[in-house]
């Protein structure tokens, strides 16, 4: 099996793309990856590019990188980086892409630091896999509440001077175990997520209300903690729950097919709308226990209707499922996953199928 250089292009765009390269042994075999007939000779990476978008310029299926790279799943989960200023070159003779540009090793640009300027690590300048600004709020905000965690969550008792409608700048009193955290998200259990196939409640979506910082911890078991609300998006009142604010994760995973065959259904469309389009966020009724992880890619299909064939005595005939788009999984729970809709061919609805790529 041909190996990628571990210091080359993130997501192995510099790896050989010959058809003879075998897929990873521990990944489900995806569809055949082909170059587009009108693929450009090269593309200069600019700020705002995504790895998905770059691959769309060259490949028919931008998610099928593992097949053409021959990467194992550990490499897929822990990729390297690609930066603005580098150039992706299509070597048509050898059927491969290679990386050029940049003045450092393997084409990585050299970053000059000034002691007067606050700087970040060079990895922070790398382009993202998908539009990061679309999913950032979903990476840290509580999305799914499991019944086992609801009972023990800290909760709002009331606001200062007995107020029951609170917002930014208000003080509030909270009871519950805070652990070692001092900054918390405030949320309220909202819509029940029901499995379209069984009707079972998979969990409750969380309505995000705002942020609060611990102002004074309780001094006795029967005393409340005092908090200051630092941000609010909706009204906050008694009974609202708190969860520690997690660190912002750096998520830049390579798209890949699930480890095993997945047959899922769309449970809901975030925001309560009826139809989903490009860059919409949807939930599906499969999660970690079904082999999904961050970066898994599924194809979306609208279920074919059953109609009557009037030319054959009104015999029932089922129409074929029609592909509606591609789903990039960016956050997983045990039985539910959240995905970003990519490459829309038609509107996506609750109940539509989400399957492993053919």
Automatic annotation (TrEMBL):
Highest taxon of the lineage: Bacteria
Limits of the LysM domain: 41-90
Record field: transmembrane: none
Signal sequence region: 1-24
Keyword Signal among UniProt keywords: yes
Keyword tags: Signal
Keyword flag Signal: yes
Protein name: LysM peptidoglycan-binding domain-containing protein
Organism of derivation: Noviherbaspirillum pedocola
């Amino acid at each position: 099996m041909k190996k990628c250089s571990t210091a080359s292009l993130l997501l192995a765009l510099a790896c050989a793309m010959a058809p003879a390269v075998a897929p990873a042994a521990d990944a489900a075999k995806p569809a055949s990856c082909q170059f587009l007939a009108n693929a450009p000779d090269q593309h200069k990476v600019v700020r705002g590019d995504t790895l998905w978008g770059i691959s769309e310029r060259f490949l028919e299926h931008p998610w099928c990188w593992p097949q053409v790279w021959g990467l194992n799943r550990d490499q897929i989960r822990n990729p390297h980086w690609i930066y603005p200023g580098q150039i992706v070159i299509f070597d048509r003779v050898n059927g491969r892409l290679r990386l050029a540009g940049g003045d450092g090793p393997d084409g990585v640009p050299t970053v000059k630091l000034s002691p007067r300027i606050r700087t970040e690590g060079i990895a922070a300048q790398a382009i993202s896999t998908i539009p990061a600004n679309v999913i950032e709020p979903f990476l840290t905000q509580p999305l799914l509440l499991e019944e086992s965690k609801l009972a023990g969550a800290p909760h709002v008792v009331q606001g200062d001077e007995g107020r029951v409608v609170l917002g930014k700048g208000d003080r509030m009193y909270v009871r519950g175990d805070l652990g070692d955290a001092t900054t918390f998200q405030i949320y309220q259990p909202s819509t029940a997520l029901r499995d379209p196939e069984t009707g079972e409640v998979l969990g409750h979506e969380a309505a995000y209300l705002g942020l609060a910082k611990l102002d004074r911890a309780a001094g006795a078991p029967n005393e409340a903690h005092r908090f200051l609300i630092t941000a609010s998006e909706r009204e906050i009142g008694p009974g609202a729950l708190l969860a520690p604010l997690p660190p912002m994760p750096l998520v830049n995973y390579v798209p890949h097919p699930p480890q095993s065959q997945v047959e899922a259904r769309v449970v809901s469309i975030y925001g309560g709308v009826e139809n989903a389009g490009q860059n919409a966020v949807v939930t599906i009724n499969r999660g970690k226990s079904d082999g999904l992880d961050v970066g898994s890619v599924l194809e979306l299909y609208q279920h074919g209707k059953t109609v009557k064939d009037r030319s054959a005595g009104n015999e029932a005939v089922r129409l074929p499922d029609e592909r509606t788009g591609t789903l990039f999984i960016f956050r997983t729970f045990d039985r539910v996953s959240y995905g970003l809709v990519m490459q829309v061919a038609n509107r996506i609805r609750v109940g539509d199928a989400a399957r492993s790529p053919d």
